[in-house]
Design a protein that fits this description.
Radius of gyration: 37 Å
Strand order of the largest sheet: 3-4-6-7
Number of helices: 9
Strand content: 5-15%
CATH architecture: Up-down Bundle
Shape: elongated
Largest sheet: 4 strands, antiparallel
Structural class: alpha+beta
CATH superfamily: Outer membrane efflux proteins (OEP)
Distance between the termini: 18 Å
CATH topology: Outer membrane efflux proteins (OEP)
Order of helices and strands: EEHHEEHHEHHEEHHH
Number of strands: 7
CATH class: Mainly Alpha
């Protein structure tokens, strides 16, 4: 029986409303989650639910609100200052008493020069861009992990199906050997071997069942769910005739599309905004003031005006400007390094994808059909008494080993495809088609 004709697997996950795009949908504020009834989910559903309800993404979503608050604060100008001063009182001789006392009430306002407010807002906006890019990167990584968890759950379910099939065959074989022993056509050692094979198959089935349950629980944890929500996952791991070309992924590997490059690009823009802000801070601000002075001697009232500006011959902020300029150059180099690293990682992922596809194709087209045919022939010969039971066991072990090897190759292909699409910054279209191909 070919792996690709075994099943459209049915395992469970909770119900979900679809998000428009899991890669770009913003994380919303957490609310009290209502209990979810079990539902059948595809990979598309799983990705949408993860983007909507993953606890880490919900927490990171508040970072955007914080960044918006910092942008608003950056646009605030300096507050005016109101001062009150009393002079010439409580002295001696002519200054005794309050006859010569002077009371001054003055309001002052700092006037920013060098477009500090504009550059301060620009810097806060670039910081917000870094926050948003970091959230997009983390969302991409979490969705990639969710897609891999989906593939793992599907693979473990297939292994469970293999183990169930093997258990059924060993039960039938044990029953057959027992009947042959009663008919004096089989030896006690043959029955003992059949009993040992049955015990081994039972243990393997229990292990596969546990692994499948764990994989489903891990998948449900992608959106903060639990295994109790599991109802059904729908999909079948079917490889295409040919893997996607490397050029297809490279075309999507852009600063605007790749989340990791997006973070590096946002950091460069932020460092440039920081340099402009530090340059503006090197321009001295002016403080203007005006008020009223009350003279008790007279009495009389006079107006007071004043202006002040710091002398920058000691501190012109040149050190911070130099540091900011160096940080710009460092961020630009980091962006170029990230581009090289991402392209190299994409080439490696595609090479792994191609190798896994070639291995799976060879096993599916050549090795597996031959092993299945050999297993049927050996079983038929054994039933006729032409072969020993050990030959049946060897044939079955070989078939099971090939099926598992094929499954491992297909799982490796799916994992490499997820990594390639994550690097390219796509919405996992190829991965979704992989599990939804007729």
């Amino acid at each position: 029986m070919n792996l690709h004709h075994i099943l459209f697997l049915t395992l469970t996950l909770p119900a979900l409303g679809h998000a428009s795009d899991p890669l770009t949908a913003p994380a919303s504020a957490p609310a009290q989650a209502a209990p979810r009834s079990p539902a059948s989910l595809t990979l598309d559903d799983v990705l949408a639910r993860t983007a909507e309800s993953n606890p880490e993404l919900l927490a990171l979503g508040f970072g955007q609100d914080a960044a918006d608050g910092r942008v608003t604060q950056a646009g605030m100008g300096p507050n005016p200052t109101l001062s009150l001063s009393v002079e010439n009182f409580g002295g001696t001789k002519l200054a005794r008493g309050s006859d010569v006392m002077e009371v001054t009430v003055q309001a002052s306002q700092l006037i920013e020069r060098g477009d500090k407010a504009v550059r301060r807002v620009a810097f806060a906006e670039r910081e917000r861009d870094v926050t948003q890019a970091s959230l997009a990167l983390r969302r991409s990584d979490i969705l990639a992990a969710s897609a891999n968890a989906f593939a793992k759950a599907l693979a473990e379910s297939t292994r469970l199906a293999f183990a169930g099939e093997q258990l059924k065959l060993t039960q039938e074989t044990f029953a057959s050997a027992s009947r042959r022993l009663q008919a004096a056509t089989a030896s006690p050692s043959e029955v003992a071997r059949a009993r040992a094979a049955l015990a081994s198959a039972q243990a393997e089935f229990a292990r596969a069942k546990s692994a499948s349950s764990l994989a489903l629980a891990t998948l449900a944890a992608s959106w903060g769910g639990s295994a109790s929500e599991i109802a059904e996952i729908k999909g079948a791991l079917r490889l295409p005739a040919t893997p996607p070309a490397l050029a297809r992924f490279e075309a999507a590997l852009t600063v605007s599309g790749n989340p990791r490059l997006g973070v590096s690009s946002a950091v460069v823009a932020g460092q440039r905004a920081a340099l402009e802000l530090e340059s503006a801070r090197g321009v001295a601000d002016v403080t203007l003031g005006a008020g009223i002075r009350r003279l008790n001697e007279g009495p009389a009232t006079a107006f007071v005006v004043g202006a002040s500006i710091p002398l920058t011959f000691r501190d012109d902020n040149s050190g911070n400007i130099r540091a900011a300029r160096a940080m710009v150059r460092a961020a630009e180099q980091s962006l170029r390094a990230a581009e090289v690293e991402q392209r190299a990682a994409l080439v490696a992922a595609h090479a792994e994808l191609s190798a896994a596809h070639a291995q799976a194709t060879a096993l599916r087209r050549e090795a597996l059909p031959a092993a299945e045919e050999a297993c049927v022939s050996v079983q038929s010969a054994y039933d006729k008494g032409a072969l020993a039971f050990i030959d049946v066991l060897d044939a079955r072990r070989g078939l099971i080993a090939l099926r598992r090897e094929l499954l491992d190759a297909e799982l490796a292909y799916a994992s490499a495809l997820v990594r390639a699409e994550t690097l390219a910054g796509t919405s996992f279209a190829e991965t979704k088609a992989l599990f939804d191909r007729p």
